[in-house]
């Protein structure tokens, strides 16, 4: 007789491909081996930013007896983020619009608990970050995938509208998009807002939007960014510092409410924010990370170095006949295999070069390369990535 809850079992099944790849595949067997070229996950392969270490060290020095007491969303970082993020996004955020969380995982989990009842449906665009589905299943919600329009992986507004039914409560948009690197522009987002407004009237309940923006500051070639929160009032924004700082092990992020949301709706969400985070397992960042927010905010991964790696890898992949979609943001390259995906992935693995197979995102004809690999890894891998199968 099964003793595991149905939601835990469902989440496990949805995450099985990623779990197997990470722990028991050929990559799992060599993960952490200093001799491989690792282009799989968005992990650091060089020493951390100097400013990151200094900020955490300074914030760890206690200034009073309450320095390490229980911390919810503290007033000082809330006020700081309302001002700085509001200026960045062009939105009049208020401190109580911002809930500090343990990374974007915490922010997304919080959004699900705030908005979704059991069996409510949430739509996300595929290919997608592989954690949306298991997180929704663990929240007793129903995931609904809507395919992006290849080859550029644009939002398919007609398909999103067709997928919205009586039980739909949430649509998730990830911009810049993992894994494709697309940044969705204001016109496309305005079209989505029209779809959500029309659908909300049709089904007689408000459809909310979760804008997942952890790569917001990692953009190439001077591209602009528009947050869906500036276009559709019923938007919640999830953000993580783990990407821009390339420090995913230091959990810091936030969930922000669009200040364009009607005041009564916004206040209802504010009123239950603390209790929801507490019930999720005290889903707040630790004290040190909250104190460090003002020093961490201006820091950034070296986007110039990412662009240099992007260009070198794109050129090599093109010579091998792979179809590369030039990323507009994130630190990933999304490419289509030029031949048999399994054979080509295995051939790279034979040479100690590991890329993320698209099967992990239900796209077997594609693969993803993380640009957070070191320059030495790039140099090691280029001859093999450029080799025609």
UniProtKB/TrEMBL annotation:
Pfam families referenced in this protein's UniProt entry, alphabetically: Aminotran_1_2
Record-linked PROSITE patterns: AA_TRANSFER_CLASS_1
Matches recorded under Gene3D superfamilies: Type I PLP-dependent aspartate aminotransferase-like (Major domain) (3.40.640.10)
Residue ranges of every copy of the Aminotransferase class I/classII large domain listed in the record: 79-382
Superkingdom field: Bacteria
Cofactor: pyridoxal 5'-phosphate
EC top class named in words: transferase
InterPro entries the UniProt entry points to: Aminotransferase_I/II_large, NHTrfase_class1_PyrdxlP-BS, PyrdxlP-dep_Trfase, PyrdxlP-dep_Trfase_major
GO MF terms, alphabetically ordered: pyridoxal phosphate binding; transaminase activity
EC number of this enzyme: 2.6.1.-
Similarity section: Belongs to the class-I pyridoxal-phosphate-dependent aminotransferase family.
Protein name stated in the entry: Aminotransferase
Organism field: Anaeromyxobacter dehalogenans (strain ATCC BAA-258 / DSM 21875 / 2CP-1)
């Amino acid at each position: 007789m099964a003793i595991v809850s149905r939601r835990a079992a469902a989440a496990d099944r949805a995450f099985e491909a990623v779990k197997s790849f990470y722990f028991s595949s050929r990559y799992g067997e060599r993960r952490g081996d200093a001799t491989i070229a690792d282009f799989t996950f968005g992990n650091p392969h060089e020493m951390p930013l100097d400013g990151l270490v200094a900020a955490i060290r300074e914030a760890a020095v206690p200034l009073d007896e309450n320095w390490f007491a229980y911390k919810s969303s503290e007033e000082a970082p809330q006020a700081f983020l309302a001002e700085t993020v509001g200026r960045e996004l062009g939105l009049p955020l208020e401190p109580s619009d911002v809930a500090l969380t343990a990374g974007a995982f915490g922010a997304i989990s919080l959004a699900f608990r705030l908005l979704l009842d059991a069996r409510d449906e949430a739509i996300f665009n595929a290919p997608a970050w592989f954690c949306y589905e298991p997180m929704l299943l663990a929240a007793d919600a129903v995931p609904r995938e809507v395919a992006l329009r290849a080859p550029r992986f644009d939002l398919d507004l007609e398909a999103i509208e067709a997928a919205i039914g009586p039980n739909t409560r949430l649509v998730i948009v990830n911009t810049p998009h993992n894994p494709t690197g697309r940044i969705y522009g204001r016109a496309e987002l305005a079209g989505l807002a029209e779809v959500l407004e029309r659908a909300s009237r049709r089904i007689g309940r408000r459809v909310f939007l979760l804008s997942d923006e952890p790569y917001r500051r990692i953009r190439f070639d001077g591209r602009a960014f528009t947050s869906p929160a500036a276009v559709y009032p019923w938007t919640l924004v999830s953000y993580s510092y783990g990407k821009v700082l390339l420090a995913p092990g230091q959990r810091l992020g936030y969930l922000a409410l669009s200040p364009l949301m009607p005041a009564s709706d916004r206040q209802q969400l504010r009123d239950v924010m603390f209790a929801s985070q507490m019930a999720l397992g005290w889903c707040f960042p630790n004290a040190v990370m909250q104190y460090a927010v003002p020093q961490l905010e201006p820091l950034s991964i070296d986007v110039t170095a990412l662009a240099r790696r992007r260009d070198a890898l794109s050129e090599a992949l093109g010579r091998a006949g792979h179809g590369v979609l030039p990323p507009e943001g994130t630190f990933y390259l999304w490419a289509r295999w030029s031949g048999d995906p399994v054979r080509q992935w295995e051939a790279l693995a034979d040479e100690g070069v590991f890329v993320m197979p698209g099967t992990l995102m239900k796209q077997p004809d594609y693969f993803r390369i993380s640009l957070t690999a070191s320059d030495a890894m790039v140099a090691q891998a280029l001859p093999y990535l450029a080799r025609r199968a």
